[in-house]
Amino acid sequence: MTIQHPMEDLIRMDRIPHIWCSGCGTGSVFMACLTAIKESGIPYDEFAMVSGIGCSGRGAGYINIDSFHTTHGRAIPFATGIKMAKPDMNVIVFSGDGDLFAIGGNHFIHAARRNMDITVICVNNLIYGMTGGQMAATTPHGAKSSTSAAGNPETPFNLPLLAYAAGASFVARWTMLHSRDVADAIQLALNNRGFSFIEVLSPCPINYGRRNKEKALATLKNYHDNTIIKNNADLFELDIDFKRGVVLGNFINKERPCHDEQYGKIYHAEAG
Amino acid sequence: MKPAVLTGKHFINGDVACAEGAIAAGCKFFGGYPITPATEVAEHISERLPDVGGTFIQMEDEIAAMTSILGAAWTGVKTMTSTSGPGFSLMMETIGLAVVTETPCVVVNVQRAGPSTGLPTQGAQGDMMQVKWGSHGDYEIIALAPCSPQEMFDLTITAFNLSERYRTPVFIMSDEIVGHMSEKVVIPKADQIKTISRKKPKGPKHKFKLYQPGPDGVAPMPAIGDGYKVHVTGLTHDEKGYPVMSVETQKEMMDRILGKIRNNLDDIIMTEQYQMADADVVIVSYGISSRTSYTAVDMARELGFKVGLLRLITVWPFPDDLIRDLAKRVRGFITVEINLGQICREVARCAGNLPTFLAGHAGGAIVPPEDVLAILKEKFAS
User: Of A23, A159, B143, B277, which residue has the fewest beta carbons closer than 10 angstroms?
Assistant: First the structure.
């Protein structure tokens, strides 16, 4: 007997099995995203998903809506083009930390500054997974990677602080283990008329865990035991250090006029 | 609110004429980034797009500008960006994405002298090979070279039409001189301007394949929100648009993408001939250099040289067959261009054993007609 997947109407079943490794968390984040879309009640044809390059960048290839797998780092400007040309679309960017914050960092801060009405979901696995485990802009200081064998000499971004400082009007962080909270945060983000950012911590046991002596289950246990849920937390307290406890929650949900609305008011003489 | 087509006679520069051409062609989205000498295109179209219900956005760099016009194009609208050398270099990766995803869009390059920052306020034609080969991998694009503000208007409309017909990026390869030169531009009545829009798919949605070509080799293109649930990727993909990592799929995809240009050369290639009937030496030129070449032909004719001008309006795809045919009846070719040897290589490639010469320039000014005469006197005196 074939059992239907509950999200079959939102998945390109002809593209399954997916490429994500055993123990990878991207699928859980993807599933939370599908749940949010389904529960929003908005017709699927009013959504578009845009991804960049990397493991989570493959998300756009599995979701059964208009979906775009673009170049490395450029999902946000592609999404910006969609949103500005067709403002009634709900545009979701689903991509990874390397894609969004190293090669694509400039686009991220400017879309946040404009309060572009898109929802950016960052699957943060602290590493470049697809290319084999090189250090990223999110890799913890001292962590090992294939390009920092003795430990990362650099300091990682505090992504929620960065997003807020740049102008995001919705900011959250969860782990893939908190899948219900992730789905709820995505729903809040979809309802926010403005730039929404959700960081979701997600394990990469193959390319991060192995080098840093962290088994897949240990990472999940960290997500469970060493996290503190604190909505509206001080954004300066959000450095990722599981020894001290990693703060999760919906931190910012402060609506301000979004870009297409402002453009319409000034240039298309739309009543406010 | 002004209408889309500003019918009448205008005294405007090439950049402004280009922006007006875009509006007349039905452009509804422009993503830009300021750069000399192309800035006036963005400035003018930022004012004009709201008149026609369109949208302008100034992005954070040229990578984002180029990427934004692809996203917008998939919503079903006609889109454009403009830039010059350094910005053009930044756009290269996304141009490859436009080619492989078969996304119609128009890119205007108002060329300045390079490499690098070069001479920002002075003209050149040094990006003619970059436009053809600058992104990685094999591909075909269409590039047009206007020689006057009037052609900046006319050819921008042509560029949109070719882009929509063939689902491919089309380039306006202008230069600082044409971009900043002010001349009379005649804008016809709206009903006299022919515009083409991309074919939309018909038939049942569940059977739809994103890259299944019609009889003309071009696949119809749905818009975001039409319900076709497209998947668009820069990875090698099959007719459905799904990534397939196989050599067979790569070949099929490449054959189709290259074929739709290579099998329609007669429709795409536009040239103009001057004093060619009895010519035994042919000047090949394009853009601003073709304009100064008319003078070179007239001066050479006064000296008794049987010289004609072949003006390339379409530079890419290159008119191989035309040059080969001419090579059967002339003594040689002189290519006039503001670079140190780009399109002259294409001419030489097609000229067989005939002598071919370059009347070039390092950039920053036009090639003086006297330089062409010097080559004629030295190499073609009978």
Answer: B277
